Amino acid sequence: MKKFKLRALSYAALLIPIVSFANYRVPSENVELLEDAMSGSAAIAIDASTNFFNPAGLTRLPKPQVLAAGRISRIDSMFSGTSVGMSGTARSKINGIIPAMHYAMPVYANTFFGLSVTSPFGSITEYPNDSVLRFISTRSLLQVIDIGPSLAYRFNRHFSLGAGPDAQHGRIVANSFFPPSPFVPSSPLRSWGDDWAFGWHAGALYEFNDFTRLGVNYRSQVRHRFEGQSSYLGVPNNNNLNITLPLPAITSLSLYHAFNATWAMMATMDYTQWDIVKNIVARNSAVASILVVPQNLHNTIRYALGGEYHYQSQWIFRTGLSYDPTPQNGRDRNVTLPVGNSIIFGIGGHYQWKPTLGMDLGYVHVFAKNAPINNTLLGLTTVGNVHTSINVVGMSVTWDLA
Question: What is this structure's pTM?
Fold first, then answer.
């Protein structure tokens, strides 16, 4: 019975919170939002990335434009405590590069088109194969790539609307070690799956004048159903692994106001409907025909405030702060996404090298509150604390094609 519990816990713990950056909500969609800690996202509308943050902002771009962005992230998490009867520490150190691409163009009269390829959700932890957490998790991964075309229409000089579909490809990986027994040595337990799922987005932009605008954007929930395989002792499980995982809807409200030609401020509230994530359900696994992992996430509101300074005609400097509360509760939190409430600080700038070519460079540090872990599943318990440090550097290039 204990052997079954350990194996089930390995699956369950790996499937628990690989749903989003949640408190890692640091954008890869555009570096400009690294610089101001994601303030003004639905209202700033100054380049092709507005297709993702608020497609109505496409009506502010009179020329075809391409934006390519990338970020380098370092996520360092240290667990200290007890897991499955073993005490000690375990460290997950992640370095990764996440790219993004945006395109915008006028179509006809007051109609505009945009296309974004981004990674709006993702999570990863990697603990050593010999750590105290090895029977819970050695690697957990969620990758989501979103392809989002949009159409936008300007009704008058003040009001614009935009909308479009989203096609998401997701991949999930969940690895751990099966504990040894008198008959079977400790062996890797590996699972993976992928999926295509669909949603939609829509936004509105109201420009009071040349200095002030208000934007609202909605991105629908997307319900993924990952299908793949699991293996133990190197032998694939013949059953088709199936993992159901919904990703939440997000509503953003943003304000942009320029005080003069030099100074401007931005503010944003993001409402994320995490409460759709009650459980993560795995079917046809090597453990059982169905395995339900409680999540019980709650909705959150993220607040962000930022400012920008225009220097001469070529430079824009930005900075900002954001408060991002965790959607997790202490009972169901696990070591695969161990982050508490966070404060995000961003700084960076834009340089207009040529009239048609500009570059951004931004840096973000996430001050994450220590996350207490006290999780029991199938009678087995992990207790401890996780300290997480997150640093991100990003760069983007914006090119006007005409």
Answer: 0.90
